[in-house]
Amino acid sequence: MTDTQAASGANTPQVNAQVTASAIPPEEMDRLTDGIVAALKSVYDPEIPADIYELGLIYRVDIADDRNVAIDMTLTAPGCPVAGEMPGWVENAVSAVPGVAGCSVTMVFDPPWDQSRMSDEARIALDMW
């Protein structure tokens, strides 16, 4: 199984692929990872003009050998009006990536999201310098 995690801190979300005896060839894993990141960047919080990846809302992405993807994500606030809809948006976007067999999203609130998780790109878009 391969574990790809969005790292916190340093203002830029990063995806680190750690291959642990994966049945997925490295080239395909790179392609899947790039496609998943692109899919995540296509999902926007409707109240904030930045995508969920650059906002730092993605905490974990796990690509299993059967190409099913499990994602842990959070929201900028637990009472977000689209809390019930956003996991479905993420599932649909990631499931559409060629080679992904399916996707499940788990909403987590630990650790709580804060502005330090945002990338420089998100900070520029939100004029938060």
From TrEMBL:
<dbReference type="Pfam" id="PF01883">
    <property type="entry name" value="FeS_assembly_P"/>
</dbReference>
<dbReference type="InterPro" id="IPR014291">
    <property type="entry name" value="SUF_FeS_clus_asmbl-assoc"/>
</dbReference>
<dbReference type="InterPro" id="IPR052339">
    <property type="entry name" value="Fe-S_Maturation_MIP18"/>
</dbReference>
<dbReference type="InterPro" id="IPR034904">
    <property type="entry name" value="FSCA_dom_sf"/>
</dbReference>
<feature type="domain" description="MIP18 family-like">
    <location>
        <begin position="36"/>
        <end position="105"/>
    </location>
</feature>
<dbReference type="InterPro" id="IPR002744">
    <property type="entry name" value="MIP18-like"/>
</dbReference>
<feature type="region of interest" description="Disordered">
    <location>
        <begin position="1"/>
        <end position="26"/>
    </location>
</feature>
<protein>
    <recommendedName>
        <fullName>MIP18 family-like domain-containing protein</fullName>
    </recommendedName>
</protein>
<feature type="compositionally biased region" description="Polar residues">
    <location>
        <begin position="1"/>
        <end position="21"/>
    </location>
</feature>
